Amino acid sequence: MGNPRHGRLGTSSSVRLLTSTPSQLTNHDLKPVEPERRQWGPWNFVAFWVADSFNINTWMISSSMIVGGLSWWQSWLCVWIGYAISACFICLTGRIGATYHIGFPVVSRSSFGIWGSLWPVFNRAAMGAWNSAIPSELKMSED
Fold first, then answer.
1. Residues near 65 by Cβ (< 8 Å), separated by ≥ 6?
2. 71 and 88 share a domain?
Protein backbone atom coordinates (compact mmCIF):
# COMPACT_ATOMS: atom_id res chain seq x y z
CA MET A 1 0.00 0.00 0.00
CA GLY A 2 2.91 2.37 0.57
CA ASN A 3 4.34 4.41 3.37
CA PRO A 4 1.59 6.08 5.47
CA ARG A 5 3.78 9.18 5.91
CA HIS A 6 3.32 10.21 2.28
CA GLY A 7 -0.02 11.87 3.05
CA ARG A 8 -2.29 9.81 0.83
CA LEU A 9 -6.00 9.95 1.52
CA GLY A 10 -6.99 7.55 4.27
CA THR A 11 -3.56 7.35 5.86
CA SER A 12 -2.60 8.37 9.36
CA SER A 13 -1.31 11.80 8.27
CA SER A 14 -4.62 12.81 6.68
CA VAL A 15 -6.53 11.60 9.75
CA ARG A 16 -4.23 13.69 11.92
CA LEU A 17 -5.19 16.81 9.92
CA LEU A 18 -8.89 16.18 10.48
CA THR A 19 -8.80 16.06 14.28
CA SER A 20 -10.89 18.39 16.40
CA THR A 21 -7.92 20.69 17.21
CA PRO A 22 -6.05 21.67 14.05
CA SER A 23 -2.49 22.83 14.51
CA GLN A 24 -3.30 26.50 13.74
CA LEU A 25 -5.68 26.72 16.70
CA THR A 26 -3.14 26.18 19.44
CA ASN A 27 0.60 26.40 19.93
CA HIS A 28 3.03 27.49 22.62
CA ASP A 29 2.91 31.18 21.59
CA LEU A 30 -0.87 31.37 22.01
CA LYS A 31 -0.88 30.08 25.58
CA PRO A 32 -0.78 32.55 28.49
CA VAL A 33 2.70 33.38 29.70
CA GLU A 34 3.66 31.30 32.70
CA PRO A 35 4.27 33.20 35.99
CA GLU A 36 7.97 32.33 36.05
CA ARG A 37 8.45 33.93 32.60
CA ARG A 38 6.68 37.21 33.48
CA GLN A 39 9.51 39.66 33.94
CA TRP A 40 8.07 43.03 32.95
CA GLY A 41 6.81 45.46 35.56
CA PRO A 42 5.10 48.85 35.16
CA TRP A 43 8.36 50.73 34.57
CA ASN A 44 9.31 48.37 31.75
CA PHE A 45 6.12 49.33 29.92
CA VAL A 46 6.77 53.04 30.52
CA ALA A 47 10.37 52.74 29.32
CA PHE A 48 9.23 50.83 26.23
CA TRP A 49 6.62 53.47 25.41
CA VAL A 50 9.10 56.35 25.78
CA ALA A 51 11.78 54.52 23.77
CA ASP A 52 9.23 53.76 21.05
CA SER A 53 8.23 57.42 20.88
CA PHE A 54 11.72 58.56 19.90
CA ASN A 55 11.81 57.67 16.23
CA ILE A 56 12.05 59.37 12.87
CA ASN A 57 8.27 59.83 12.63
CA THR A 58 8.23 61.94 15.79
CA TRP A 59 10.84 64.27 14.37
CA MET A 60 9.05 64.43 11.01
CA ILE A 61 5.74 65.35 12.68
CA SER A 62 7.39 68.04 14.77
CA SER A 63 9.38 69.48 11.88
CA SER A 64 6.28 69.68 9.67
CA MET A 65 4.53 71.69 12.38
CA ILE A 66 7.50 74.06 12.56
CA VAL A 67 7.28 74.53 8.78
CA GLY A 68 3.56 75.17 9.28
CA GLY A 69 4.29 78.13 11.56
CA LEU A 70 4.57 76.77 15.12
CA SER A 71 7.64 77.34 17.25
CA TRP A 72 9.79 74.38 18.27
CA TRP A 73 8.32 74.17 21.75
CA GLN A 74 4.72 74.40 20.46
CA SER A 75 5.29 71.58 17.99
CA TRP A 76 7.04 69.48 20.65
CA LEU A 77 4.15 70.10 23.04
CA CYS A 78 1.62 69.08 20.36
CA VAL A 79 3.53 65.86 19.70
CA TRP A 80 3.59 64.91 23.39
CA ILE A 81 -0.08 65.78 23.88
CA GLY A 82 -0.88 63.57 20.89
CA TYR A 83 1.21 60.75 22.35
CA ALA A 84 -0.54 61.14 25.71
CA ILE A 85 -3.98 60.91 24.10
CA SER A 86 -3.03 57.85 22.06
CA ALA A 87 -1.40 56.29 25.16
CA CYS A 88 -4.77 56.29 26.89
CA PHE A 89 -6.35 54.27 24.07
CA ILE A 90 -3.36 51.96 23.74
CA CYS A 91 -3.42 51.25 27.47
CA LEU A 92 -7.15 50.50 27.30
CA THR A 93 -6.74 48.07 24.43
CA GLY A 94 -3.65 46.47 25.94
CA ARG A 95 -5.19 45.98 29.38
CA ILE A 96 -6.66 42.56 28.60
CA GLY A 97 -3.31 41.24 27.37
CA ALA A 98 -1.48 42.61 30.40
CA THR A 99 -4.11 41.25 32.79
CA TYR A 100 -4.44 37.75 31.38
CA HIS A 101 -0.91 37.55 29.90
CA ILE A 102 -2.09 36.65 26.41
CA GLY A 103 -1.01 38.02 23.06
CA PHE A 104 -2.84 40.04 20.44
CA PRO A 105 -3.90 37.03 18.31
CA VAL A 106 -5.67 35.46 21.30
CA VAL A 107 -7.41 38.72 22.21
CA SER A 108 -8.61 39.19 18.63
CA ARG A 109 -9.92 35.60 18.59
CA SER A 110 -12.08 36.38 21.60
CA SER A 111 -13.63 39.31 19.72
CA PHE A 112 -13.78 38.11 16.12
CA GLY A 113 -13.65 34.32 16.33
CA ILE A 114 -10.95 32.03 15.01
CA TRP A 115 -11.22 32.85 11.31
CA GLY A 116 -12.37 36.45 11.75
CA SER A 117 -9.28 37.20 13.82
CA LEU A 118 -7.06 36.69 10.80
CA TRP A 119 -8.02 40.13 9.47
CA PRO A 120 -6.83 42.11 12.54
CA VAL A 121 -3.63 40.05 12.73
CA PHE A 122 -2.80 40.52 9.03
CA ASN A 123 -3.82 44.18 9.22
CA ARG A 124 -1.51 44.74 12.17
CA ALA A 125 1.36 42.99 10.38
CA ALA A 126 0.84 44.98 7.18
CA MET A 127 0.66 48.29 9.04
CA GLY A 128 3.84 47.42 10.94
CA ALA A 129 5.64 46.66 7.70
CA TRP A 130 4.26 49.82 6.08
CA ASN A 131 5.28 52.05 9.00
CA SER A 132 8.76 50.55 8.93
CA ALA A 133 9.08 51.00 5.18
CA ILE A 134 8.12 54.70 5.05
CA PRO A 135 11.11 56.02 7.05
CA SER A 136 13.41 53.70 5.09
CA GLU A 137 12.05 54.97 1.78
CA LEU A 138 12.34 58.59 2.88
CA LYS A 139 15.92 58.04 3.91
CA MET A 140 16.76 56.36 0.60
CA SER A 141 15.13 59.17 -1.40
CA GLU A 142 17.37 61.74 0.32
CA ASP A 143 20.54 60.04 -0.91
1. 74, 75, 78, 79
2. yes
